[in-house]
Amino acid sequence: MALSQDMDIRLLRLPWQILHIGDCSFFAKVYFTDSSYCFLLSDLSSVWCEEAAAGVIQERSKELNRRLSAPISSFLSHLSQFIRPLLDCKEKTPHSLSCTRAPDRLLLHVKSQLSGLPFYWDFHCREADIRTVCRHLLQPLISMTQALDAQCQELCTLLRRKDGEIQDYQEGGAVLSRDRLRTETFDDDAFYKTFMSKNIPQQRGASGLSDRLQQLYRDVVVIQEQPETTAAGDGVRPLTEQSQDGDGHVSAAPDPSTAQQDVDNGATQKPSQVPRDDVLSLTQRPSIVVSKAKKRKAKGLFT
To answer: Pick from 252, 227, 225, 228: which is nearest to 240 by CA?
Structure first.
């Protein structure tokens, strides 16, 4: 099953949250509007989704709730208030939500009350197509892995530099004021082996994403969407005309008429030919004269 382009974009910007149904744990994304909804679920072995519009919701509500008559927006508002508190909830899901697996379908059964009357709903989730799986799971997770690996390499480099700095202090006669602050020299291989043996066995199963990983997921998704916003015919102004910050606020580029007025008034300036300091290479930076520090009496490192 494939998602519509509009709903796919809305879901993509949402992080994966954990949903416990009985003894099963799922990664879930859900989006509700006043007349439709979309549900995306995965247990890391399969991915299911359902996108329902107003016609499908109206027909299913008549089949499941013959005594209940209400606008579609009321049904969807009630379902949203029922589902959302269960996402990332550490407590067990109440018996009012259950699931039934089929070879190509996952049914979620909701039992609740609306306006004092019994309310029932079934989410008919079918297997998602390969494009949805790659777009919502594979591509973002690979980007997250690459970002975390680059961060780890930078932190290892920083630790090695800190070890060199401490060694230089020690060779100059500095000593620790408290022995408990002493650390061993950082070893990449030893740290990696210890980390893998202690942490990887505990990461099996759908245990959810931390707030930090959810934010990282949002960041890599925003980066992945940028090339698509510049495609012709998608109804979005090019990035040269508008920019969007991390909070979703859009800022427009300078008015072309203002730029033209500057040209007419002779106020246009040529770009500076002097490179900025932050782009100078090591060989291009001006030499800095460093005076040799006088030898001082050895003191404690933190005194």
So the answer is: 252
